[in-house]
């Protein structure tokens, strides 16, 4: 039986995933890698987009067909695995949310001159207001779409003002002069790692988009999420490349703000404030919603009071930032943790895709399974290396 197509829900899930990915770290990553790789960063973006899409389709399809959240699927694969994965996701989500709240504060500071702490509190209040509404899911969908489109529009404007060498960027996207595999892994982890890839998949499940009949809708929603995140990445890359190609120096203390200011003057700096705030507040919402969705499998009370638990999650993130400040070591470990979470969760979903007690008579595409298996191996090796280096640096 074919499901009715709900374009608002499909776009909402896609934008929720995309705006969850496009946070303060995403903006900084893109500008830093553009400065180091130049036009060849286009190849890194292209490679990461293809991998992101493969990872996302593997995970979203299994969630839809199993008609269960990731922790329940993991427990069906191996008892207790769901609890372990949920612990990693919630811990990583909380740590990243502290950074997201701080990023939103920085955006409001650039835009209207508020202190970072006051901006963080205002951000928390706005995010909480969404979950006080009766139909919070629909409001969240619309808000994610609005903020996503706003970010794309502003970054396209800044990209044009920086006058990037588009021809060289296009050439080096397919014929790079240097390739940085660690940059590819970093981009993949930042776009579909940790809680991010599950944000849209769980949103579709909550909205009733599930079952084999819904796979076409799931695929289009996943593709829309990757497309939005990729558009932001591509145009931010072009804006940064325009600045770098002119020989201008990007400020290492705040790379994305520097790009916006150098490309479009003081107006550009104000626009950076809008983009940073938009990126951060949508990441706050996506992180809180998805982290709590992992807890719903373990307690009926969490399901019953879901919005209240989400609000508590946002409040906790904000209070930690405001009272303690940005816990650098925790955020460093959380970044490395993100690299670990992806191969664990992706491997779990690949096993689930071939378990009849989970997916019934569903046949998972072989090409997607092979791509997923390769990503599990590569991410496991590289994330272990990065994580070991981060641990060593903390105790050096």
TrEMBL record:
The chain crosses the membrane at residues 37-55, 76-98, 110-131, 143-161, 181-201, 222-244, 271-295, 307-324, 330-354, 366-388. The keyword Transcription does not apply. Keywords: Membrane, Transmembrane, Transmembrane helix. It is found in: Membrane. GO terms for biological process: iron ion transmembrane transport. The keyword Transmembrane helix applies. It holds the Pfam family Nramp. GO terms for cellular component: plasma membrane. It is a multi-pass membrane protein. One of its GO terms (molecular function) is cadmium ion transmembrane transporter activity. PANTHER family: SOLUTE CARRIER PROTEIN FAMILY 11 MEMBER (PTHR11706), TRANSPORTER PROTEIN (PTHR11706:SF2). This is Divalent metal cation transporter. It comes from Hymenobacter crusticola. The lineage of its organism: Bacteria, Pseudomonadati, Bacteroidota, Cytophagia, Cytophagales.
């Amino acid at each position: 039986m074919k499901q009715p197509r709900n374009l608002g829900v499909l776009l909402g899930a896609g934008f929720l995933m995309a705006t969850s990915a496009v946070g303060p770290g995403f903006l900084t990553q893109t500008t830093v890698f553009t400065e180091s790789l130049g036009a060849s960063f286009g190849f890194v973006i292209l490679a990461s987009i293809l991998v992101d899409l493969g990872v996302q389709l593997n995970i979203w399809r299994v969630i839809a067909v199993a008609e269960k959240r990731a922790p329940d699927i993991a427990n069906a694969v191996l008892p207790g695995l769901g609890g372990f994965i949920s612990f990693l996701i919630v811990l990583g989500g909380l740590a990243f949310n502290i950074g997201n709240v701080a990023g939103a504060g920085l955006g409001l500071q650039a835009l209207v001159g508020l202190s970072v702490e006051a901006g963080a509190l205002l951000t928390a209040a706005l995010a909480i207001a969404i979950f006080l509404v009766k139909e919070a899911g629909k409001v969240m969908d619309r808000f994610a779409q609005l903020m996503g489109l706003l970010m794309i529009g502003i970054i396209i404007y800044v990209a044009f003002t920086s006058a990037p060498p588009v021809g060289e960027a296009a050439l080096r996207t397919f014929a790079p002069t240097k390739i940085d595999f660690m940059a590819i892994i970093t981009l993949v982890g930042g776009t579909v790692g940790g809680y991010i890839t599950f944000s849209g998949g769980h949103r579709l499940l909550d909205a009733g988009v599930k079952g084999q009949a819904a796979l076409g809708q799931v695929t289009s929603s996943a593709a829309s999420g990757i497309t939005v995140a990729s558009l932001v990445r591509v145009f931010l890359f072009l804006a940064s490349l325009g600045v770098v190609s002119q020989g201008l120096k990007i400020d290492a203390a705040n790379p994305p703000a520097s790009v916006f200011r150098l490309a479009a003057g003081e107006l550009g700096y104000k626009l950076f404030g809008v983009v940073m705030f938009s990126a951060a507040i949508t990441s706050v919402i996506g992180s809180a919603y998805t982290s709590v969705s992992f807890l719903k499998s373990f307690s009926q009370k969490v399901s019953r009071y879901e919005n209240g638990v989400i609000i508590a999650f946002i409040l906790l993130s904000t209070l930690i930032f405001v009272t303690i400040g940005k816990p650098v070591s925790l955020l460093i470990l959380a970044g490395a943790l993100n690299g670990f979470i992806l191969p664990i969760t992706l491997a779990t979903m690949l096993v689930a895709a071939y378990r009849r007690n989970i997916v019934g008579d569903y046949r998972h595409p072989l090409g997607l399974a092979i791509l997923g298996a390769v990503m599990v191996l590569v991410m496991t090796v590289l994330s272990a290396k990065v994580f070991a280096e981060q641990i060593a640096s903390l105790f050096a």
